[in-house]
Amino acid sequence: MTRKLVVFVPPEALDPVRNALFDAGAGRIGGYERCSWYTEGTGTFLGGEGTSPALGEAGREERVPELRLETVYPDELHDAVIAALRLVHPYEEPAFDVYPLL
User: Fold this and answer.
1) Which of 1, 10, 27, 70 is the most buried (most CB within 10 A)?
2) pLDDT at 73 over 90
3) In the prediction, which pLDDT does 87 show?
4) Cα–Cα distance between 59 and 100 in angstroms, integer?
5) How far is CA 29 from CA 33, 46, 67, in A?
6) φ, ψ at 45 (rounded to 5°)
């Protein structure tokens, strides 16, 4: 089975995150590699006590430009793909979703 990863990244982190995901085996569709899709949006968050946000400051609601990045990967690469994402993503707590594709 294939999974779709959706992750939210600051614009300057797009290429490092994409490269890490692709190096871990994500982004392959048939004979194509490095497949992804992204669009612009605005992320919001309020860091609680003890947090150290990469953007803005704890205790204040922030609104920051982000990109919604999507790519796919096979089930057996799940641990490697998520580990690569966590390693390179600049946020203390990266926001991401994983969907099984039928």
Assistant:
1) 27
2) yes
3) 98
4) 35
5) 7, 37, 22
6) -165, 160
Give the Cβ contact number of residue 79 at 10 Å: 9
Q: Which two tokens stand for residue 9?
A: 């990244």
* Contact present, 35 and 27 (Cβ < 8 Å): yes
First vs last C-alpha separation in the chain: 7
Q: 56 pLDDT exceeds 90?
A: no
Instruction: Using the predicted structure, report yes or no on whether residue 21 has a pLDDT greater than 90.
Output: yes
Residue in 13, 5, 2, 1 with CA at minimum distance from that of residue 83: 5
β 61-74/96-101 pair status? unpaired
Mean pLDDT of 5-16: 98
Provide the phi-psi class of 36: left if phi over 0, else alpha when psi is between -120 and 50, else beta. beta
Pick the closest to residue 8 from 98, 68, 81 (CA basis): 68
